[in-house]
Amino acid sequence: MLEDPSYNSVVRWSPDGDSFVVLEKFTKTILPKHFKHSNFASFVRQLNKYDFHKVRHNEESGEAPYGRDAWEFKHPEFRADRKDQLDNIRRKAPAPRKPPPTEDAFPASQQIVVLSESLNATNVQIQTLQEQYLELDRTNRLLVAEVLSLQKMLRAQSQASNELISHLNNMEDRRRNSRHSAQSSHSSHSGTNYHQGTLGLLPDGTDEPAPELRRARDILNGVSPDSQADRELERLSMAYHQNGSPAESAGSSVMYTHAGPQATLNVVHDPFSDPRHLVYPVGQTQGIDPFHADHIHNIPYSRPLSNPNVMTETPSQITPPPGKDQGGSLWRGKKPQILLVEDDKTCARIGSKFLTNMDCSVETARDGLEAVEKINTDADRFDLIFMDIIMPNLDGVSATAMIRMVSPQIPIIAMTSNIRQEDIQTYFQFGMNDVLAKPFTRDGMVRILKKHLTRMLKDPQSAGVLNDPNDPTSAAATAGGQQTAGGPGPPTGGYANATMAAAMQAAVNQAAQAQVKYEQTPIPSPSTTASWHSPGTTMQQVQQQQQHASPQLDQGGYMNAVGSGQGVGGMVLTPGGSQRGPGPGPGQQYAGYMQAGPGPVPRLPEMGGMGGADDRPEKRQRLYGPSQGGYVG
Amino acid sequence: MPDFGDHVDNGIFSQILEMDESDHDRDFSEPLVTNFFEQAEDTFEKMDRALAARDLNELSTLGHFLKGSSATLGFNKIRDSCQVVQQYGHKLTVDGVSEPDENICLKKIAEALQTAKVDTAELEKQMKRFFGTE
Questions:
Q1: Is the pLDDT of residue B72 over 50?
Q2: Are residues A278 and A340 in the same domain?
Q3: What is the CATH number of the domain that holds B41?
Q4: Residue A427 lies in a domain
């Protein structure tokens, strides 16, 4: 623009080319159009900022060279012939006289305000979230507790139904036998407060109850709450309770009523004080079993046994099924959960039927893989596993080895027709606890259950238990006694013990020599149950012989077998004296072992009548009763 | 409890019958036995194929499989034949002595299979009579 002559009337270079002149016309016409300040002073100020300075003209030197109101501006770098220097013309940096602190102070403090504001907002947000979380937590607890209560109610109901069925059984039997008509008054007790006094008067178990009643019971048995979700729920609930009350030790119902408030101490609305949760005590009087396996299984395995006498306090006494089935009265509390691993459908069905008939809950797995999956899902779900050996996908021995990684304690029983001694040895080496020869029989299964689930038995004596009930290994401990009764296998717990294995091996070797090899006979003829049990008897005899030969070794094996004690490994090689078990001395104990052996099996046939025959209340009420205190250990 | 002769182990089979609701309501044993015969027929077919293919391993597995269920039901004759199939499938005699000659093994298996089929057919007839499902 400066160079364009047409604008000479507005602005132009000075003759020297080192300054430019803004003429009057610029100030009057251009400025108002293009500069918002519309005043020349502002324009000059802007120019000053770019280091243009007004060229002063001495008034005295004559009249202004460019006319009135013309302004000449000069910049050292702004020259008509030096366009390359234009880049050097810049707006000047802010005047240094303005102190920087004051300039920054305002934004900084503003920043702090903004930050603290957002912080506050976040805090509020977090608080809201926390409240929501607590609310959800409370709701969740509430729901879990609610579901548990419902489950308990359901169990109580089903137990009540069981009682009713039992009662109806009784009634029918009585009617059938046309006696004890006076007992009918008991029907008014509606199942919760049965007195077992009637039991002694009940007919013996030979009468078959009506099929409807049986079916009803089967239905009840079939709907046992054993789904995975239930377990998770229980665990959840336990976790809640444990958070709040780590000191609460007893695995009793007390835990459920007290733990809640502690856990939610700082919560204003305590969900556990919700009146709805008073459902629980109600349920308790109806025969809810606080020592239900669901709870029991949350207790460490080695917990000492609580006082068995506790159970006499329970208000609920429940009539057992009057000799309907032998198994109906086997258990004093929760039905054992059995996992039956068997690829053959026929065997699985028969096995399940036998077990169900013995009042156990049965789940089946078609192969070892499925079994391992089930155990991995919930290691504590089952009380005992029957494991076929030869199966597709994963054989029973491998499956056992895998299960042992998760669940070292659960009794695993090999079910197999391969009962050659070396096979049996393999089973034990891989962690199996016993062998049930195939084809299995009901009695064989009963024997195994009684031997390995002694702690769950209504009447542990029936399993020939010799040992201290406080011994957590009591289930295993019956092995010694039971072995005589026909178990072909060595006792429980042996798999973990090298010495035991050695003793077994010795015994087994001797047995192999002393006895016909089992599968050498073209086919073992299991025409009777007894014939399948013969290896056990043989082994026992052999062990007896062995004791003479090498008492120390045998003692070790035997001691372990009886489980008289304090851990499987500790005392194996001590022939006498050191055991703190109930057994008096090795010799005597051995005698006891011999005596106890034959006990269980001959007694088996009597089991059916047992519930009816045994009218001692402390025995009877264990059948379904809620107070399985004795079991806790 | 009828007498099935040496076909059936009465002790074992009666235990299964005891699982029924009553003698007139064989809800448990009847389908079990029926299933077994279906299973047996199926297994025999597989054995025939395995025999044609000279697949001793498969024969042994099949023999073991049917042995288990037949033994559990107390069907001794069938079980015994299955045992033979299983053993020779492992190239062993019934006494557990090694029998390296595959032809002998296959011949023994073929014989045992034939016996098993006959016994099974006979027993099935008896069972149908017993359960009244003829």
A1: yes
A2: no
A3: 1.20.120.160
A4: yes
